[in-house]
Amino acid sequence: MGESVKTLLQRLVRRIPSEVLKTTLDKWGRLTAQQQRALDLTQPKWTLMENLWAICEENEWTLKRITELEMIYVIENPDQGMWYAYQLLDPEDDAHCVELIQFKELFRYHLRELVRHVSVKVKKHTDEAVWIRIAWGDSFSRPNHLKPTYVVHYLQTPYVFVTSLTSKHRPLLSQALVLSTRYQTLKDANLSGRKLTAIRDLLMRQYQQVFPTKCPSPLAEKNHPALKKEQDGNAANRRRMATEAFGDGTLPQLQTAVYKLETKFKDPTNRTMSDREEPFRCVVKFSSTNLLESLRDCASSGFASTPVTPLLSSISLKGKNYFVVTDNDPGALSQTRRPQN
């Protein structure tokens, strides 16, 4: 076992919180009952790592076993980085017939055709999500397991979620995915967040939505008893419109929404500025621990005007949180993602 394997184990043990380390090791299932008893999880992390490393050497475990442990932890605790959503487009006639075994074989084959040195590990989760761990190399270097890319794809759907993907590797992943899923292209969904479940629920509409109506919403009345007394008042209308704009009940926990403004300067008295070919550009970013809940509360309480502007309601309506606003098409969406980390 080389130093690279030890380094990966060191980083992984430091990364896993002490309170979930035992559960993660149990799910890993590689330690015998005797080894589990001998491993004192109350020890300092560096001592614990050395003891765990000694067990790995004793059992002659390879890099594959350590990446298994990492994958178990990431799947159970996915909110560790920034996730980006993508959508597969233009399915072929047999796209709905692709099963897990076929997908795994095709994905590995196509990615290895594109990259000489790459390590791919695929695991199906209990919620039907297919998790893929990719350690990238190139024609001259071995895969770097310290900086893997994680991909989550729900078979029979066009949705893909990715974290830790560089611009260099994005076209390679895109080509491997479209070929193995029987689609024609993969596009940026302009949706990102640190909570995988939140952007998944938003994009796949897996939360309680309310659609606009001229009449008071029965669903809103059910969940907001105060509406029965305020039905004819402004407060009732604000609550109803806020619910129709953002949804009802618990909302996906999105943290940000970004609006990039590109507009021409318009002032007939200042021809120098008005005749500029390049538009003015600025970026407005909304941030909150739960942005949709915050916006809904602002609208229902009167801090934000109602009806809710489409620029805000489009977050939940279109399942996106990155927009480009222009003079000609104020609802236009960017087709180019800002750089990812």
UniProtKB/TrEMBL annotation:
One of its GO terms (biological process) is CENP-A containing chromatin assembly. It comes from the Eukaryota. Pfam families: CENP-N. It is found in: Chromosome, Centromere; Nucleus. Signal peptide: none annotated. GO terms for cellular component: chromosome, centromeric region; nucleoplasm. Keywords: Centromere, Chromosome, Nucleus. Belongs to the CENP-N/CHL4 family. This is Centromere protein N. It comes from Labrus bergylta (ballan wrasse). The lineage of its organism: Eukaryota, Metazoa, Chordata, Craniata, Vertebrata.
